[in-house]
Amino acid sequence: MENLRKRTYYLFFLFVLLTSTDGTPDRDRITALLGQPPVTFSQFSGYVTVNEQHGRALFYWLTEATMDSATKPLVLWLNGGPGCSSIAYGASEEIGPFRVNRTGTSLYLNKYSWNKVANILFLESPAGVGFSYTNTSSDLKDSGDKRTAQDALIFLIRWMSRFPQYKHRDFYISGESYAGHYVPQLAKKIHDHNNASSKPFINLKGIMVGNGVTDNHYDSIGTVTYWWSHSMISDTSYQSILSHCNFTLTENPSSCDHAINYAVNHEFGKIDQYSIYTPSCTNSARVLRLKKTLLRRRVYGYDPCTENYSEKYYNRPDVQKAMHANSTGIPYKWTACSDVLLKNWKDSEFSMLPTYKELIAAGLRIWVFSGDTDSVVPVTATRFSLNHLNLPVKTRWYPWYTNGQVGGWTEVYQGLTFATVRGAGHEVPLFQPNRAFHLFRSFLAGKELPKS
User: Fold this and answer.
1) Burial of 332 (0-12, 13-18, 19+ CB in 10 A)
2) Of 10, 40, 148, 329, which is the most buried if we count CB atoms within 10 A?
């Protein structure tokens, strides 16, 4: 059976290489973006075909490290949704080198860009997100976890053939929200692929997930608990949700939906659920999406007003030309999130805890972090889920510091590090960029967060 499995992987790997439509990196080089300030690092973006039969191609944007890029690790960043763009969020609001100005016509530098310490690869995944596309329209209505992970693996194999300097480079995967599924699922795909390959070249070292969807049961209980403990809902609603909802089920009764809808629509008020203590943007599509939010089918993207600026910028033909994007003439506008994918997601693993156990056993570096003002995938949800891994404690709970201030709290287990980021919402690097940057540096170094 083991030999058969290895032979199957070898044939798959050979097929991927033989059918690869690689070009030279120079073809994908970005010389300059509209309104971009001068930079010292190289940028590349473009398409990698992951399925010829269906015409699926994924769009990427690589921002190399600002110094000594040849010696720095490679980090793949994924946003969730499912159906939200890593360019809209990760690159343009969180960890990327640029921010989009209010006019949507120019960029300015991000002081805490993660490409100061690593080469950052943003991927719009799956097909149908952002500039990534498919020529088979039915793909948009039957996407799911399995195909997303498989396409991402093929993307990496083919992308590294286009950029061979990144073969064997220390490689990490990071992301947030529904990427709590994408990141460990892709890591498992890579681990299995490497074990079955005679010459593996994707040198996966670890993963880092922020405010990630982890386990439907424990996440849901933790989310309701957060709402109640942060005075967002009444005692009556709290008890009503717990009594009417069975979070071990994939579908809950209508009484559960009613209890959740009542709390959301009548007790939350007009707050930003992704950052409960900051003002919300009242003129974005996010308001409509929040009205559709149910606990069992959350919208896992964050939509501040900066999303509006990004949608102006990335829909400009001159920006798309500079990024080698939309070369096939996609018949719809670039948007931060795809409602079609969100509404039609077909397979979603109930729990990522078994996958975490496999990755821990494989010896990967695993960090999980939570911004503590997010009520959509809150810190209590993540803690409830991780507690059921039953990992031995290596370093007990303590406050960690940046610039003389408490950056959050952390506990180190055998095989996994958990950390909170104080005062951060769903998109941790957006709300606390300095703290997020220090967290990332500690993760890459494999060092515990500073105690003073």
Assistant:
1) exposed
2) 148
Q: Both tokens of residue 17?
A: 């290489």
d(CA 283, CA 304): 9
Radius of gyration of the chain (CA): 21
Domain ranges of the chain: 1-215+300-452, 216-299
pTM over 0.85: yes
Question: Which residue carries 């509404």 as its tokens?
Answer: 343
Residue 370, both tokens: 């939570």
Supply the pLDDT for residue 5. Answer: 56
One of 174, 177, 275, 442 is an active-site residue; which one?
177
Q: Are 8 and 21 in contact (CB under 8 A)?
A: no
Is the preceding omega at residue 126 within 30 degrees of 0, hence cis?
Answer: yes
The CATH T-level fold of domain 1-215+300-452 is Rossmann fold (3.40.50)
**pLDDT tens track for 353-376:** 999 999 999 999 999 999 999 999
Q: Given a cut of 90, is residue 131 above it in pLDDT?
A: yes
Average pLDDT score, the chain = 91
- The set of residues, in sequence order, having a beta carbon less than 8 Å from that of 21 and lying 6+ positions away, is 49, 52, 158
Determine the average pLDDT of the residues in 129-158.
Answer: 96
Q: How far apart are CA 241 and CA 201, in angstroms?
A: 49
Whether 254 is catalytic is: no
Token code pair at residue 49: 């075909």
Is the C-alpha dihedral spanning 165, 170, 171, 176 positive or negative? negative
At 261, give phi and psi (nearest 5°): -60, -40
Of 216 and 11, the one with more pLDDT: 216
Instruction: Confirm whether 426 is a catalytic residue.
Output: yes
- Two tokens, residue 288: 């409509």
Q: Is 347 a catalytic residue?
A: no
Q: Which of 112-126, 284-298, 318-332 is least confident?
A: 284-298
Q: Which of 145, 215, 303, 374 is catalytic?
A: 374
